[in-house]
Amino acid sequence: MSTELVLASVIFVAIGLILVAVFTLTRFIGPRNENAVLKNSVYESGVSNPVGNTNIRFSVKFYLIAISFLLFDVEIIFMFPWAVNVAELGVTGLIKMFIFIGLLFLGLIYMYKKKALSWD
Length: 120
Known about the structure:
Elements: H1 3-29, H2 36-39, H3 60-84, H4 86-113
Helix pairs in contact: 3-4
InterPro entries: NAD(P)H_OxRDtase_bac/plastid (IPR023043), NADH_UbQ/plastoQ_OxRdtase_su3 (IPR000440), NDAH_ubi_oxred_su3_sf (IPR038430)
Transmembrane segments: 6-29, 62-83, 89-112
Protein name: NADH-quinone oxidoreductase subunit A
C-alpha cells in the first residue's frame, strides 16, 4: 500500500471522527427548547411577531438582475488569466479577448433593449 493511500485514509477517518465529535458536542452543549409552541414560532432578525405575509412573490426582474450579475461576474474569471498572460498570448489572444468582450457587450445591449435593467 502506498503512503499516499494511507495518508488519505487517515485524513478521511480523522475528518469523520471530528464531524461525529462536533455533532455530539452540539447535542449536549447547545441550547434546547422543549416547548413545541415556541419551537415552531417565527423568529427573524430579533422580531418575534413579524408584520405582513411571508409568502410574497418577487418580481421576475429580480431574478434577471441576479442571473445577469452572475454572467457578467463570471467574465472576470476568464479575463484575469488572460490579463496575466497577455504578453505570451500575443495578437491572437488580444483578438480573441476583443471578441469575447464584444459578445458580452452585445448581451448587455440586448438586456438594455429588453429593459431588463430598469427597476420599477
